[in-house]
């Protein structure tokens, strides 16, 4: 598990493309605000939400699932309930090149985290990149 400031900093500096699973088109939702913040920091952000798949957001087509993303993704940022995390991790494992599973504030799933780590991914739980980036001065 990536827990130290150095580990979090390295993840955020090496990541270029982030799939935000559970992105909301509603501006008042945390997933919407965090995705917009990440985009403003130079990341390519791919929104994932089956309810609005095909719409345009953040300069991207909203995907209905991770499997619909044809491009390489460095990080999967999860805005779903903790009990939904194993399904998201399995979908991420099916993609080539995912390096990081990031679970947002209030979200953790030790078994899914262990599965991702066993596959060589870095895992962050119960943290928000929109908090970590300014905190670490990135």
Write the layout of secondary structure elements.
Layout: H1 5-14, E1 17-21, H2 30-40, E2 44-48, E3 56-57, E4 60-61, E5 75-78, H3 85-93, E6 100-103, H4 110-118, E7 122-124, H5 129-135
Parallel strand pairs: 1-2, 1-5, 5-6, 6-7
Antiparallel strand pairs: 3-4
Structure, explained:
By secondary structure, the chain is α/β, with parallel strands linked by helices. The chain has one domain: Rossmann fold. Helix content is 33%, strand content 18%. The protein contains five helices and seven strands, in the order αβαββββαβαβα. It has helices spanning 5-14, 30-40, 85-93, 110-118, 129-135; strands at 17-21, 44-48, 56-57, 60-61, 75-78, 100-103, 122-124. The strands form two sheets. Strands 2-1-5-6-7 form a five-stranded parallel beta sheet, with helices on both faces. Helix 3 (85-93) links the parallel strand 5 and strand 6 (100-103). The mean pLDDT is 96.
